[in-house]
Amino acid sequence: MKNIHVSTTVNGDEVEFVCPPNETLLDALRDRVGLKGAKEGCGTGDCGACTVEMNGEIVCSCLILGAEAQDAEIKTVEGMSTGDALHALQQSFIDNAALQCGICTPGILVAAKTLLERNPDPSETEIRYWLAGNLCRCTGYDKIIKAVQVAAADMRGA
Amino acid sequence: MNFPAKTKTDFKVVGTRVARPDGVDKVTGRALYGADFSVPGMLTGRVLRSPHAHARIKAIDISAAEALAGVKAVITSDDFDVPEDDFLRDVQDNCIARGKALYHGHAVAAVAAKDAETARAALKLIKVDYEVLPHVTDVDAAMAADAPVVQEGRADESVPEGCGPNVTNFHEFGHGDLEAGFTKADLILERSFKTEATHQGYIEPHACLATMADGRGDLWCCTQGQFFVRELCAGIMGMEASQLRVTASEIGGGFGGKTTVFIEPLALALSRKSNRPVKIVMTRDEVFRATGPTVSSSTDVKIGMTKDGRITAGDAQLRYQGGAFPCQTVSFGAQAAFAAYDLEAVRTQGWNALANRPKEAAYRAPGAPVAIYAVESVVDELCQELGLDPMEVRLKNAARDGTKASYGPTFDQIGLVATLEAAQAHPHYTAPLGENQGRGISCGFWFNFGGNTCVSLNLNNDGTVGITEGNPDIGGSRASISMMAAEELGIPYDKVRTVITDTNSLGHNDVTDGSRVTFAVGLATIEAARAAIQVMCRRVAKIWGIDEEAVYWEDGYAKPSGPNAGNFDPMSIAEIAAIASETGGPIAGHHEVNAEGAGVSFGVHLADVEVDPETGATKVVRYTVFQDAGKAVHPDYVEGQMQGGSVQGIGWALNEEYIYGEDGKLQNDGFLDYRVPVASDLPMIDTVILEIPNPGHPYGVRGVGETSIVPPLAALSNAVSRAAGIRLHELPMSPPKILKAMMSKG
C-alpha cells in the first residue's frame, strides 16, 4: 500500500504529512502531526472523544481518513486558546468543575465551541442534544451543561 | 485511628471551590493519558483473543506470525512461568490463557510489530487449535449441580456441602432470631431479583508502554494504582519489585475497573522478548470483552414488617457470578444489603460462582448496588402494600449511632438519619407529579476504606510547598490534597503543588479505590504538614534562642507562645524557608500510615420518572442526591462524585447490560449497543451535601466516591412501580421489558 502525501491546515498552521491510505484522521493528528488532544475512546464514532472540527463541521476523527484532510481546515482542542488566554469554554470548564478525569473534555470543548458559534444562547435542551454524541462517564453531565451555559453568557457579554 | 482533639470544623481553604491544578492541562489537550506517551523505537503490541466462550487450547502455532516481516516478538502463556501464588496465577491466567480459554475475548497470544497494521496481520497468522467445550454464562445456571465446570477445584473451605461445581466461596452475616422476627410481622414479602453485569465504561481504553531489558523494567500505564501494578507485574515476570518502576499516566476514568492488570504483563513480556519498548492500547471491543465488568446477580429477599412500618426481620440470599476466576464480591453485597437498617433479626448469605465470562473487576461500591437494590425494592413494596410513607418507614428503621450493623460492627458517628431527614424536608419530596410519573426513594451504603498511604511534603526555598503522593488523581484529588496541606500550614492553596509519583519515589500506596484517597492521603498530608511544622518551630526556636515548646504555629507563621516566651516578630514560612540551609538544611515532613477509621457513608436518592405507556421507555425527570461527606473538602468534586455515580446507576437501572448469545459470546461490545447515558437522556442532578464529621479523620472527612452508585437501581425501580403500576424484578428495566409488563397487566 502506497502512502499518501497530505497537505492540510491544522489550527491555522499549514501542515504536511504522509500516511497510509487506511489511516484515520485521528491517528494522523496524533501520530503524524503530534497533537494528542483528540482521544480514541471507541474507534467507532460512538463516544465523541476524538471530536475535531473539519471545514466548520464537527466530526469524529476516528471515522475520517487522514487522506481526506487534503486541503481541509482542521481545528482541534489545541487551537482553542490564544497564547496563555484560554477560550471562554476552557475557562468555564475549569471554573465550574466540568471535568473529572478529563479524557472526554477535548472532544466536548470542540463540540461545544461549534454550538456556541452557531447559537450563542442555546437552551439547556439544545446543549444536551448537541452534546449527546460526546460520552462523559464521570460527571453525569450536570456541570458540563452548566459550564457551557456560563461560557455562552460570558461570550455574549451578559 | 482516633484523634484526641475534636475534628476540626473551622476552615479557611477546605470547603472552598478552588481551581484544580491539572485543569489547564486537561482543557488544552496537553495532559498525557495512557495512549499519549511514546518513546523512540517503540513497537505496537496487539492481542489475539478467544472466539469461543470455553475451549481447550490444544495447540498454538506462532511460526507464521513470527516469520512475517516487521514482527519482532510473539508470545503465548509459554513465555511466562507459573506463579506459585494462587492469586497471582489467576491474574496472569486472566491476562493470557493457559490451557483453556475461559471466556469470549480471553487473550491467547500477543504480538509486537513495527506498526499496528503488521501486528494485526500477524494475529491472523497465529493458528490456534481449539476444542470447544460446553459453556455457562447465566448466574443461576452456573450454580447448578450439572453446570459445565469452568475451573476444577476452586471452591474454598467456606463452601457448604452440596453446592454446584462452580461455587468458589460462601459468606454469611447477621444476628438475632429470624424466625421470631418473622412471627412478629404483619406482612412478609419474599421476592427474587436478577441483575445483569454492567461495565464501568470509562472513556479511556486501557493502555500501557513497557520497556524491559537486563531484568529491569519501566512501565507507563493508565491505572488506579501503580504500586499494585508493580506488585502484580513483578510477581508475574518473576522479578524483584525494585527492578520494575511503574509510572501512572493521567487516567481517563476507572471507577474500579483499572485496579488490576490486563495488558501490562503482555507488554513487558513482548518487550523482554523483542528488546524494544512495546505499547499496547486496547480497542473498545477488547475493553468490553476482556476487562472487568461487574458481577451479574440473582437474589432472594424476605422481609417482615409490622403494619406501623417496623421491620421485624430481614433475610437475603445472594448469588453472584464474577466471571471465570474466583472473586469475593458477594461478601461486600451480603454485608451491605441491610446496612441501612437497625434490625433485631437479620441474615444474609452469599455465594460466588464462576462462569464463562470475563473476570469481574471492582465497579464503584462493588457488590453493594445489586444487593441494596433487592432489599430496598422489597422495603418499598411493603410500604406500598401497607399504605405507609416510604421515607417515614426508612426513618423508623434507620441505622444510627450505636446501631449494631447487620454485618457485625457497631456504627460510630453516621449520617443516615440526617440524610433521610434532609431528603424528607427537601421540596423534591413533596413536589407534584405529572401523568405517568412516579417518585422513588432508596438508601445507599458503602463501607469506605483507608489503607496504606505514604506522603512526602517538601518546603521549597521560596516558602512554597511540594507534595509527593502515590495515588492517581481520578476525580480531582490533587486539588483536595493541596487544599488540606494549605489549610494545615496556613498558606494559600496556590503555594502548594501536588504531584503523583512513580513507584520508586515513595513507599507503597494502596490503589485509588474504596473512596480512600481524600480520606487517607488527606490524613497523611495533614500529618506530614504537622511534621514539617514541628521542624519549622524547632528551627525558629533555635533562631530565637528559646525552647521549642515556646514556639507555636498559626496561619503560616511561627510565633512566640505568649509574653514569657520573649518578644519576637512572627516568622513566615517563606522567611523560615529562605534561611533553612543556615538552620539545619532542607525542611520536610513525611507521614506513613495504614489508615483506619475511614467512616462509612450513607446516601439517599430521590428519583422522579415518567414511563411512556406507548413504548415502555423511562425518562428521569427529576433527581436529587443526599449524601454525607463527613467534610466536603472540595464541594464541586464531591457534587461531581454524587452526580456521576448517580448517572452510572441510572444507566444500570434502565439500559446498561452485558448481553450474551446462546453461543456464549458477548453481543454488545461497543458503545453503540452498550449504551451509557448521554447528555440528552438526563435532567440536572441536584445534590445536597451533608457534613456529619468522621471522627477517624482530623478534618472529619469520609469517602464519597462510591456510595452514589448504590441507591439509583432501587430508586428507579421504586419510581417505575409508582409511575407505571408494575414492578420489575430484574435490571435493566429496558423499554421492551417494561412494555411487556404493562401489557400483561392490561
Automatic annotation (TrEMBL), chain A:
The keyword Oxidoreductase applies. The keyword Iron-sulfur applies. PANTHER family: OXIDOREDUCTASE WITH IRON-SULFUR SUBUNIT, XANTHINE DEHYDROGENASE IRON-SULFUR-BINDING SUBUNIT XDHC-RELATED. It comes from the Bacteria. It holds the Pfam family Fer2_2. This is (2Fe-2S)-binding protein. Keywords: 2Fe-2S, Iron, Iron-sulfur, Metal-binding, Oxidoreductase. The lineage of its organism: Bacteria, Pseudomonadati, Pseudomonadota, Alphaproteobacteria, Rhodobacterales. PROSITE patterns: 2FE2S_FER_1, 2FE2S_FER_2. Residues 4-80 form the 2Fe-2S ferredoxin-type domain. SUPFAM superfamilies: 2Fe-2S ferredoxin-like, CO dehydrogenase ISP C-domain like.
TrEMBL record, chain B:
It comes from the Bacteria. Pfam families: Ald_Xan_dh_C, MoCoBD_1, MoCoBD_2. Gene3D superfamilies: Aldehyde oxidase/xanthine dehydrogenase, a/b hammerhead, Aldehyde oxidase/xanthine dehydrogenase, molybdopterin binding domain. Residues 28-134 form the Aldehyde oxidase/xanthine dehydrogenase a/b hammerhead domain. Keywords: Molybdenum, Oxidoreductase. SUPFAM superfamilies: CO dehydrogenase molybdoprotein N-domain-like, Molybdenum cofactor-binding domain. PANTHER family: ALDEHYDE OXIDASE 1-RELATED (PTHR11908:SF132), XANTHINE DEHYDROGENASE (PTHR11908). This is Xanthine dehydrogenase family protein molybdopterin-binding subunit.
